[in-house]
C-alpha cells in the first residue's frame, strides 16, 4: 500500500508510541541559523529527533555550488544512521515554515530510496493549535546506530550541466524549469538572499505558498491538481524540473505535484544561487522575461 506523503496531527498523535515511527524536527530560519536548534531544545513534539539543514543535509559551500549544496547520498545515509534511523522506520518530518523544510527533508528521504516518509500537515503550529502535548525537557540521547541503507529511487536530481545544456544549447521540450520563489524575486524586483536578482532563462514562476490554504495547510489533492494543470497549460508534469533560490522551497512544489497525483518530477538543487554564481550565465529580469547578460 502506497503511503500518503501527508499526515494530519491526529493520526501522528496516535502513533507516537509506535517503536518504528520516528518524528524528525527540521525547523530552521534562513535569517537566524540558531533558531531551529534553539526551538527544538525549548519545545518539540514528544520524542522528536533533530536534523539541521546546514549542518546535516548540506555539503560544504564553495561559492559556486549554491547556498545549500546537497550532501552526497553516502553522507546523508550516515547522518540518518547516526540518528538511529532504520530501514523499516516510518518517518514524519515537521517544521514551522509552511512545511518548506519538511518537504525538503521528505524529498531527501525519497531520493535515498526510503518510501515510508510523510510531512506533518501544518507542522508545529498545527500540533500546538490542536492542544497536543509538547516535550520541554532535554532531548533523549541516541544510543543505537540505525541500519538505513541507500536504495534505488525514482526521485532524481538534475545537475548544473544539464541545465546549462538546456539553456545554452538544446532548450529541449522535455525540460521545463519551475521557480518556486516569490514573484518579486523571480522578476528581479528584490533579492534578499543572493547577490544578483532575476531568474534562469525559460523558467516559469509558481510561488510555493500557492500550494497552501490560509491556515498554512496543504490544499486538497483535487484542488492542487486542478490549479497546477491550469498553470502548466499542457506542459507534461513529469517534465518539470523544480528550482528556487537554493533547492529547499522547490521541494514544496515537487511535493505538491506528487500529492496531487501528477507523478514524480525532478529537482535542480543548486537552483538560482548556483546559477547566478557565474557571471557568464544569462539571466532574466522583469515581467516580460527579458533575457540579459549577467
From TrEMBL:
Keyword set includes tRNA-binding: no
Superkingdom: Bacteria
Pfam families for this protein:
Rhodanese
GO terms for molecular function, please? thiosulfate-cyanide sulfurtransferase activity
Keyword list (alphabetical) reads:
Repeat, Transferase
Domain Rhodanese per the UniProt entry, residue ranges: 17-136, 171-284
Write down what this protein is called.
Sulfurtransferase
Q: What is the species of this protein?
A: Ignatzschineria ureiclastica
Amino acid at each position: 500500500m502506497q503511503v500518503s506523503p501527508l499526515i494530519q496531527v491526529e493520526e501522528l498523535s496516535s502513533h507516537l508510541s509506535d517503536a518504528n515511527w520516528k518524528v524528525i524536527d527540521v525547523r530552521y530560519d534562513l535569517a537566524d541559523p540558531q533558531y531551529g536548534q534553539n526551538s527544538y531544545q525549548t519545545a518539540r513534539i514528544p520524542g522528536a529527533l533533530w536534523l539541521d539543514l546546514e549542518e546535516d543535509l548540506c555539503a560544504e559551500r564553495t561559492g559556486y555550488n549554491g547556498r545549500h549544496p546537497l550532501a552526497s547520498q553516502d553522507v546523508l545515509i550516515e547522518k540518518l544512521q547516526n540518528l538511529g534511523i532504520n530501514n523499516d522506520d516510518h518517518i514524519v518530518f515537521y517544521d514551522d515554515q509552511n512545511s518548506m523544510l519538511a518537504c525538503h527533508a521528505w524529498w531527501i528521504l525519497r531520493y535515498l530510496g526510503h518510501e515510508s516518509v510523510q510531512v506533518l500537515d501544518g507542522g508545529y503550529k498545527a500540533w500546538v493549535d490542536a492542544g497536543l502535548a509538547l516535550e520541554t525537557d532535554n532531548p533523549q540521547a541516541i544510543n543505537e546506530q540505525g541500519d538505513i541503507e541507500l536504495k534505488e529511487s525514482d526521485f532524481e536530481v538534475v545537475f548544473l550541466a544539464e541545465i546549462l545544456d538546456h539553456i545554452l544549447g538544446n532548450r529541449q521540450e522535455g525540460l521545463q524549469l519551475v521557480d518556486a520563489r516569490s514573484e518579486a524575486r523571480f522578476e528581479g524586483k528584490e533579492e534578499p538572499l543572493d547577490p544578483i536578482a532575476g531568474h534562469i532563462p525559460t523558467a516559469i514562476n509558481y510561488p510555493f505558498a500557492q500550494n497552501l490554504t490560509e491556515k498554512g495547510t496543504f490544499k486538497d489533492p483535487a484542488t492542487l491538481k486542478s490549479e497546477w494543470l491550469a498553470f502548466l497549460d499542457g506542459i507534461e508534469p513529469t517534465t518539470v524540473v523544480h528550482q528556487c533560490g537554493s533547492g529547499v522551497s522547490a521541494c514544496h512544489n515537487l511535493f505538491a505535484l506528487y500529492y496531487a497525483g501528477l507523478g514524480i518530477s525532478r529537482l535542480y538543487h543548486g537552483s538560482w544561487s548556483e546559477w547566478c554564481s557565474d557571471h557568464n550565465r544569462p539571466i532574466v529580469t522583469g515581467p516580460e522575461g527579458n533575457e540579459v547578460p549577467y
